[in-house]
Design brief:
295 residues; mainly alpha; globular
Length: 295
């Protein structure tokens, strides 16, 4: 789409992004019934890669940008796609989807901290440092209440889950530092291929084939996550980013955990208590404070 969106279209696209990314957490957990987590993540990325090849063929020249180098594509595939997805899918086998989405909301905090150390001009000032500490306190509160209520055995899973946003942070900082002039479409296509290959290899080595029974439910979840949660949402995001302020689109990161909590409670019978709401509010407040431009 060559022209900037009208205000009404922009509002609809914004709501669509929030709805799609707010429901992906539930569909990940919903689709793991009867299929091993690494296999499910690999199938999602394989399908996403196939679709993204078509997107690049149609829109690649219009987007422009340099062809991403091998190491940049490899790094994005290993960190942002393969490693992060592997941890996330394994954790969602036993943790509620809404709680996972709230814990994962620390990702912008980790990116801000990574930028402080590795990216010139992105040092944390007092306000942003306080935001990081405030968000960290929200995570600690969730671990001490909601996660502990699930049983002490789930504490290890929740700590393991934190590796997912941490791994993605490494990939994001590397891409931001070395990929400013490359084609984002090509980079994501290449990263999906590397991530799919990594996850497929891990699934082959670590998971038993008998664990994977591709039911209609699992297939529906994979199709939704690949088509809507990955390719469509990604395309809309970058199209909107060309025409709307980044600060406006950043609000998506505050809305999606709220939607995820609601979807998990309504369709997954997941418990959402006062501590869940307070912990989520603390994390999202911390994210807001760490933004370079306050909302």
């Amino acid at each position: 789409m060559r022209h900037a969106p009208t205000p009404r279209m922009a509002a609809l696209m914004f709501m669509g992004l929030c709805l799609i990314w707010g429901t992906t957490w539930f569909f990940i957990r919903w689709g793991l019934d009867g299929i091993a987590p690494l296999t499910a993540a690999a199938l999602r990325l394989i399908l996403s890669w196939v679709l993204m090849c078509g997107v690049v063929a149609v829109l690649g020249k219009r987007e422009g940008g340099e062809r991403p180098g091998f190491w940049l594509s490899f790094g994005m595939g290993v960190f942002n796609c393969g490693g992060s997805y592997a941890v996330l899918y394994i954790a969602e086998e036993s943790l509620p989807s809404g709680l996972v989405s709230v814990i994962w909301a620390v990702y912008p905090l980790m990116v801000a901290l990574g930028g402080h150390w590795l990216l010139p001009g992105e040092r944390l000032d007092l306000r942003r440092s306080l935001g990081f500490l405030f968000g960290l306190a929200g995570v600690a509160m969730l671990f001490a209440t909601d996660v502990l209520d699930l049983g002490r055995a789930q504490l290890g899973t929740a700590f393991f889950l934190l590796l997912s946003p941490l791994i993605s942070t490494v990939g994001t900082v590397v891409v931001k530092r070395h990929g400013a002039h490359v084609s984002s479409l090509q980079l994501n296509r290449n990263g999906m291929f590397v991530g799919a290959a990594l996850l497929s290899g891990l699934a082959f080595l670590l998971e038993e084939p008998a664990r994977t029974q591709l039911s209609a439910r699992a297939l529906l979840a994979i199709l939704y996550l690949a088509c809507f949660g990955t390719v469509l949402a990604f395309g809309v995001w970058f199209w909107m980013l060309r025409h709307r302020p980044a600060s406006e689109l950043a609000v998506v990161s505050y809305v999606t955990p709220i939607i995820a909590l609601g979807v998990g409670a309504v369709f997954g019978a997941e418990h959402v208590g006062l501590t869940t709401i307070v912990g989520a509010a603390m994390i999202l407040t911390g994210v807001a404070l760490t933004r370079r431009r306050p909302l």
